[in-house]
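Run log // design_07
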């Protein structure tokens, strides 16, 4: 899980660095194409069908919409706003997933966990800082991306069990291509011929993204979920560290306070969920 979070953070750093040379829409399309090719090869090796009735099911279509939303807005967030702030806001995804599971799937969430969810979301508000002098409307991009990823994760719970990891990865990266195409049409920015440097960084982003996804699936499918999930928050350390070291960012008091609220809430929900499960 730690290796997965580190690789995801490196992927974000590569994409942010590439944004200095290529339009965001083009980055998304090239990144999506690279990841889709890798997962298509993995699916072929595992003899998994990329197109089937299960893949075309309504749940998978809903998942694709959320995937496009999450990928597009989070990519815009890391290219247009500080990497550290976008990474911290993304850590609220598990909180929204727990809330969504209660509202959509009827899972039991007690008062204590609802309180923790509200505290964590308050941390997001603290980071965005609406009404403050430092508020930027661009900071909302990370929040929309986070909501998109939470919706994708909720849809994944209802996805047919017969769909393999490689197939999910393939269609996830196809959604990245779609997100890039949509933004290209909306933004109207002309695509450019990428040079060797940006292509090298995009290749690194693809390899890190695929490796991170593989490590994440391995951790979630073979380890005790309650034991490995807390290590998701290590991404915060990597993302903030890369922002400070490579992009000259600084940590404001609001980011420090907000990240503390989000992490505390997430860990409490995990601990409380384990207590409830253990008590039957």
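design_07 sequence
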């Amino acid at each position: 899980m730690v290796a997965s979070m580190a690789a995801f953070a490196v992927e974000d750093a590569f994409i942010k660095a590439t944004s200095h040379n290529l339009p965001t829409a083009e980055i998304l399309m090239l990144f999506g194409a690279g990841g889709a090719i890798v997962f298509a090869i993995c699916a072929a090796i595992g003899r998994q069908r990329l197109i089937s009735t299960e893949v075309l099911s309504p749940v998978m279509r809903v998942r694709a919409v959320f995937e496009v939303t999450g990928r597009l807005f989070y990519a815009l967030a890391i290219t247009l706003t500080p990497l550290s702030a976008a990474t911290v806001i993304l850590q609220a995804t598990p909180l929204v997933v727990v809330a969504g599971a209660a509202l959509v799937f009827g899972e039991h969430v007690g008062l204590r966990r609802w309180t923790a969810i509200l505290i964590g979301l308050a941390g997001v508000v603290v980071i965005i800082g609406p009404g403050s002098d430092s508020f930027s409307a661009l900071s909302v991009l990370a929040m929309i991306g986070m909501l998109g990823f939470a919706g994708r994760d909720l849809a994944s719970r209802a996805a047919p069990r017969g769909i393999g990891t490689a197939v999910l990865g393939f269609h996830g990266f196809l959604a990245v291509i779609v997100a890039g195409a949509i933004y290209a049409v909306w933004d109207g920015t002309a695509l450019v011929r990428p040079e060797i440097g940006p292509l090298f960084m995009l290749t690194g982003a693809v390899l890190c993204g695929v490796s991170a996804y593989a490590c994440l699936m391995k951790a979630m499918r073979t380890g005790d979920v309650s034991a490995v999930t807390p290590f998701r928050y290590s991404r915060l350390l990597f993302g903030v560290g890369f922002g400070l070291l490579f992009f000259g960012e600084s940590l404001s008091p609001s980011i420090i306070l907000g990240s503390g609220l989000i992490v505390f809430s997430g860990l409490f929900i995990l601990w409380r969920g384990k207590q409830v499960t253990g008590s039957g």
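DSSP finds twelve helices and no strands in the chain.
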